[in-house]
Design brief:
single chain, 244 residues, alpha/beta, six-stranded mixed beta sheet, five-stranded antiparallel beta sheet, 32% helix
C-alpha cells in the first residue's frame, strides 16, 4: 500500500526534515527513511513537534516531493506523478484533519455530498451513499445542520464521513482528536478501528499517546526525521520508554 525507499527531505532553508536512521552497532547506516505499510493495516505515527510527522504527511499527499528516494502509494509512484495525475491520486485518499475543514455555509449532507459531486457521481448514488455514511457515524439526525450547530466531535464525524464518501482504500488522519474532548476522542478512535476492520487502511498521525497505548496496533515513532521505533508495543511501559 505505502512504501518509502531511502526517502530524505531537505527544505531550501537547509532544514533536514526526514533522513536515515543513525548508525547502530552491527547495523549499516540507512540512506533515508524506509518503511512499508501494508493494505488493511492500522498504523499510528507519533513523535514530538519537529520529529518529521508533518513532512511525512505532506509527502504522502504529494504537497512536497522527496529530495531523494522514492514513494509508492498503491499503484501510484509519487515521484513520477504528472500534474494531471495529482488530483486523480488525491481522490483515492480519504483525508481527516485536526481542524475539520468543513464548508461553513453547507449543511452536513452537502459537506459529504460535495466530495462525490467533485468526481461526477450521480445524484442517486450520492443520496444513497450519504445516508449510509451518516448512519455509520451516528449523525442521521444532523443531516440538515450547519457545522456551526455541531459540537467538535460531531464535526469530526462529518469529516470522517466526507473522507469515506468516495470509498477510499486509505484514510490518512492528521491529529483527528486534537480539538475534541477525551470521551469523544475514544469514540472516534473506536470508529477508525471499525473502519479498519472493514478493510480500510488507516494511517493516523497523533500526539495522543495515552489513546495510542490503548490499542494493539502498529506504532511508528519518529525522532529528528528518522524512524526510531516501529512495532506493536503491547505493554504501556514499552511505549513510555520509546516516547521518553
Amino acid at each position: 500500500m505505502i512504501t518509502f525507499r531511502d526517502v530524505t527531505k531537505e527544505y531550501p532553508n537547509g532544514t533536514v526534515a526526514l533522513c536515515g536512521r543513525a548508525p547502530q552497532p552491527g547495523m549499516p547506516q540507512e540512506k533515508g527513511m524506509n518503511l512499508h505499510i501494508a493494505s488493511r493495516e492500522f498504523v499510528f505515527v507519533v513523535g514530538a513537534s519537529g520529529a518529521g510527522k508533518s513532512t511525512f504527511l505532506k509527502l504522502l499527499l504529494h504537497e512536497e516531493v522527496p529530495t531523494s528516494g522514492s514513494i509508492c502509494v498503491g499503484q501510484f509512484e509519487l515521484n513520477n506523478l504528472t500534474r494531471k495525475q495529482i488530483p486523480m491520486y488525491r481522490r483515492q485518499l480519504g483525508m481527516v484533519f485536526q481542524d475539520f475543514r468543513l464548508i461553513a455555509n453547507m449543511n452536513v449532507y452537502d459537506n459529504i455530498a460535495f466530495a462525490m459531486r467533485v468526481v461526477g457521481a450521480r445524484d442517486k448514488v450520492i443520496r444513497e451513499r450519504v445516508v449510509y455514511l451518516l448512519q455509520l457515524v451516528g449523525l442521521s439526525h444532523k443531516v440538515h445542520s450547519k457545522p456551526s450547530e455541531l459540537s467538535g466531535g460531531e464535526q469530526q464525524r462529518v469529516a470522517i464521513a466526507r473522507a469515506l464518501a468516495n470509498n477510499p482504500d486509505l484514510i490518512i488522519a492528521d491529529e483527528p482528536t486534537g480539538n475534541i474532548d477525551p470521551r469523544m476522542s475514544q469514540e472516534l478512535l473506536d470508529l477508525f478501528v471499525r473502519l479498519n476492520e472493514a478493510g480500510t487502511t488507516v494511517v493516523m498521525v497523533t500526539h495522543a499517546h495515552d489513546l495510542v497505548r490503548q490499542y494493539n496496533k502498529r506504532i511508528i515513532i519518529l525522532e529528528n526525521g528518522s524512524v526510531v521505533a516501529d512495532g506493536v508495543f503491547r505493554r504501556p511501559e514499552e511505549t513510555r520508554r520509546q516516547y521518553a
